[in-house]
């Protein structure tokens, strides 16, 4: 949450976040010359997609590894994915179905060089027949760049607990 403002207390900087501490009178204590306060219009016009280009040796052709650009999911895509693995059973309990979840993430994220989808939505079952290690490796990258890492781990833990 870069640029989060708080009224009191201190904060620690991490590689991904920088929190501003604001004095009670509203004056920023941090040096604001290195950053700015964007308008809503500026934020909406910005491209904030994170792209990781991954070499996949297992999908090599003539000894040349496949190059797969993985794009972060936007908010709608992330919600659609989460809704696809979570459901409510007949007793009203939250349940999780992780079948094809790695393949689904790769399908949603993998793009061609021109930015169009590499895999059509209808190929998730077929994609899930590929090497599980490759799918897991690619899906982990998508989870990391899309803010899903912690959420999915929590959901998997809840799913395991519900089986006990």
Describe it for me?
The protein has 164 residues and is an alpha+beta fold. 36% of the residues lie in helices and 18% in strands. The protein has helices at residues 40-45, 75-85, 101-109, 124-127, 132-145, 149-163, and strands at residues 5-6, 20-21, 51-61, 64-71, 86-88, 94-96. Strands 1-2 form a two-stranded parallel ribbon. A two-stranded antiparallel sheet has the order 3-4. A two-stranded antiparallel sheet has the order 5-6. α2 runs antiparallel to α3 (101-109) and α3 packs across α5.
Task: Summarize the helices and strands and which ones pair or pack.
Blueprint: E1 5-6, E2 20-21, H1 40-45, E3 51-61, E4 64-71, H2 75-85, E5 86-88, E6 94-96, H3 101-109, H4 124-127, H5 132-145, H6 149-163
